[in-house]
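From the methods appendix. Each design record in this collection lists the tokenized structure first, followed by the designed amino acid sequence. Records were kept in a plain field format so they could be parsed without special tools. The example shown here is representative of the layout used throughout.

RECORD:
FOLD TOKENS (322 positions):
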């Protein structure tokens, strides 16, 4: 059975944090942040606004903006997140409860900034297997609750937000083949640990905050994502010119620019959410996609390539027709 995306919704918290806010707490400035990352501002959830709350609001916005769409018959909810409300119960089950969706399987997917695309690939598989018919795929994060605001090289990057798509069976294939991959040897280069543990044979004393080696992640992303775009296109017998839009995870504008340059692909045909929302991890791709729709750029019948990458280090890519 083929599948399609029948609706999309997004929610971002009201509280806007401009770059200048950081000038009061760490040694940085707006010019450095914009030139090194492309970020101008980001959104931060309020104290009692947890990831499931952002996810629920994204679903409510999906319903508001897509008349005729209902939650009736939803039989599976996948929440991709690195910032779950807690480890157990999973975030998806809180979404199920808050939205009173009566009969849905619920899982969280932990694949960091690649999580949303991983979740789409799983949803496509469940529909292909004919075990499920109406699936909510959500990418939701409250990274601000896990950000070390004394670490100037990471705290300026992150923001909070959520995006959701509804995936259903389709007579024509609108979600094409995906690709996934991981290099776990880089685990220590980007991690968030709630309990003391060992990663790559090194002891981790947990403080519940995100740690990253920005330079290594940057280099890995630029070197690998260029080839992954090509691999994904080949897998689907498509060429770069067949794409209307390319959405790379919004980690850093310089990563996006470097990948576009290496592919010789116009930056004007890439959608990002980095400038207004920072790095929202699993939410960055649906937010960029929704911004593209609202700007009148993404039109019916367009082909989009989505490619997420992040902590693992891991990646997942998929091509869709909207
Ligand atoms: N303000 C001012 N200076 C800063 C700073 C800040 N917020 N953060 C770091 N610096 C300083 C560093 O201390 C360093 O100073 P030094 O030369 O005196 O040691 C200098 O800027 C250069 O640091 P560097 O780490 O080389 O900067 P960079 O150009 O690599 O940018 C990141 C740093 C984090 C923005 C960049 O590496 C990045 O975005 N990496 C990818 C991270 C990512 O995408 N993570 C998520 C993946 S899903």
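DESIGN:
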């Amino acid at each position: 059975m083929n599948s399609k995306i029948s609706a999309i919704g997004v929610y971002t918290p009201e509280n806007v944090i401009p770059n200048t806010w950081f000038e009061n707490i760490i040694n940085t400035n707006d010019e450095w942040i914009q030139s090194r990352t492309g970020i101008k501002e980001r959104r931060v959830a309020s104290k009692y606004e947890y990831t499931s709350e952002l996810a629920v609001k994204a679903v409510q916005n999906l319903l508001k903006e897509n008349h005729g769409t209902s939650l009736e018959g939803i039989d599976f909810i996948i929440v991709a997140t690195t910032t779950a409300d807690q480890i157990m119960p999973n975030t998806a089950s809180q979404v199920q409860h808050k939205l009173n969706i009566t009969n849905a399987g619920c899982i969280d997917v932990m694949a960091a900034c690649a999580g949303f695309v991983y979740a789409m690939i799983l949803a496509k598989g469940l529909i292909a297997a004919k075990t499920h018919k109406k699936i909510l795929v959500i990418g939701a994060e409250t990274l601000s609750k896990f950000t070390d605001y004394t670490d100037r090289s990471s705290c300026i990057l992150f923001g909070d937000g959520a995006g959701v798509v509804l995936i259903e069976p389709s007579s024509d294939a609108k979600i094409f083949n995906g690709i996934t991959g991981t290099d776990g040897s880089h685990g220590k280069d980007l991690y968030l640990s709630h309990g003391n543990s060992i990663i790559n044979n090194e002891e981790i004393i947990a403080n519940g905050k995100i740690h990253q080696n920005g330079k290594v992640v940057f280099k890995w992303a630029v070197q690998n994502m260029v080839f992954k775009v090509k691999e994904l296109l080949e897998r689907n017998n498509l060429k770069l010119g067949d794409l209307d839009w390319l959405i790379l995870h919004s980690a850093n504008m310089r990563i996006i620019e470097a990948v576009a340059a290496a592919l010789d692909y116009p930056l004007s045909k890439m959608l990002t959410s980095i400038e207004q929302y920072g790095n929202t991890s699993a939410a960055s791709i649906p937010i960029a996609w929704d911004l593209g729709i609202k700007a009148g750029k993404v039109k019916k019948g367009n082909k989009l390539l989505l490619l997420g990458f992040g902590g693992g280090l891991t990646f997942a890519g998929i091509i869709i027709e909207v």
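APPENDIX NOTE: Residues 28, 32-33, 36-37, 113, 152-153, 156, 212, 214-215, 217-218, 251-252, 279, 310 surround coenzyme A (CB under 6 Å).
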